[in-house]
Design brief:
The chain is an alpha+beta fold. 27% of the residues lie in helices and 33% in strands. The protein is built from eight helices and 22 strands. Helix 2 crosses helix 7.
């Protein structure tokens, strides 16, 4: 009888321990605000921060899909130039600008080695190889690497299964590790950074980051320092106004708090007119609206308003994070609870 009781107590204790461990594990990952998916804004920002820089040499290859490994020799307007470092890119640009009636084509002396965003390399033997690579690359989205800041490694990332429980933990030790880790994530896998982490800002200073929101703000605020071409544009920025009022747009991404709500705007086509009027059309139904830009506390804003309630979720004064001829990235931080919304327009 005593043995039966002891076995019962042992089983009960083991069961209680298992339940306790399960409860503890769920508690560890309960803060869903710190987990994110592959297509979330923070994942895209981290990928651009950790990728191999590919836009610095666009004067050579006219593509942000890859970079050309230096040294390399090029011929521009019958002038042979050996490019050994980044300073020589200006020499190539000067040769291009020297004449107004030439073809401005940069011809490589082959073979050359290129390096993709994921740090993989490929040797190209001739111009046909280069054309094949460029065809495979497709069009640039206009948003380049964010290379004037850096993450201090190692960092630890927790991987979650569909039940939001820790499935694995990985240690990231380099930019290439981080970029390829994010690039290889499946669409339904949640990951979370183990904070705090440290980073180096554009002034070479070390900063400590304790949350996703702090990391997002750190990278977003660095975009202007890293790439002036894609900086936010306010009321005085004619380039932004020209882009906004050219063509039609659709919502390619909308995040409210921590939820992806892009499908709410599926089928809408937006047009922004020079007079400050806008329209949103879906299923032959037109919703009228207005838009305006202004500067507030050093931040460039785009204010959107629409008639009725169908589009009230994007009626706000959005901060313009960055823009290109094909995409506009906007962000709003609530003055109440500090929740963050993201809105991205992509040109049709």
């Amino acid at each position: 009888m005593m043995n039966v009781i002891l076995r019962f107590l042992s089983v009960t204790l083991l069961f209680s321990f298992a339940i306790s461990c399960q409860t503890e594990e769920e508690t560890i990952v309960q803060d869903n605000a710190q987990s994110f998916l592959r297509n979330s804004p923070i994942a895209e920002l981290l990928a651009r921060t950790s990728q191999n820089p590919t836009s610095l040499d666009n004067v050579l290859d006219n593509s942000s899909c890859f970079s050309v490994q230096l040294p390399v020799t090029v011929i521009v307007n019958n002038q042979q130039i050996t490019v050994t470092d980044e300073a020589d890119y200006q020499t190539v640009q000067n040769a291009i600008d020297a004449f107004s009636d030439d073809d401005d084509i940069v011809n490589f002396v082959y073979p050359i080695t290129i390096r993709y965003q994921n740090f993989q390399t490929q040797v190209l033997q001739d111009a046909d190889d280069l054309d094949d690579v460029l065809d495979d690359c497709g069009d640039d989205d206009g948003f380049d690497e964010i290379d004037c800041i850096s993450i201090v490694y190692p960092i630890v990332i927790n991987i979650y299964d569909s039940n939001n429980q820790i499935a694995n933990t990985v240690t990231i030790t380099s930019n290439s590790n981080l970029f390829n880790f994010l690039n290889n994530l499946s669409n339904n896998t949640y990951v979370a950074i183990n904070y705090p982490i440290t980073a180096i800002n554009s002034n070479g200073q070390t900063v400590t980051l304790n949350s996703n929101s702090a990391l997002e703000n750190f990278i977003d605020d660095s975009i202007d320092d890293c790439d002036d071409d894609n900086s936010g544009g306010g009321s005085g920025n004619n380039n932004f106004t020209t882009i906004l009022t050219s063509g039609t747009w659709y919502v390619s991404y909308f995040q409210e708090d921590d939820d992806n709500e892009t499908t709410m705007f599926s089928g809408y086509v937006f047009t922004f007119n020079n007079n400050g009027a806008s329209t949103a059309v879906r299923n032959s139904i037109t919703t009228a609206g207005t838009w305006s830009t202004y500067e507030d506390s050093g931040e460039n804003k785009l204010e959107l308003n629409f008639d009725g309630l169908a589009l009230d979720e994007i009626e706000d004064d959005w901060r313009i994070i960055e823009f290109s001829v094909t995409q506009i990235r906007l962000k709003d931080v609530s003055g109440g609870d500090g929740s963050v919304d993201y809105l991205t327009f992509t040109k049709l």
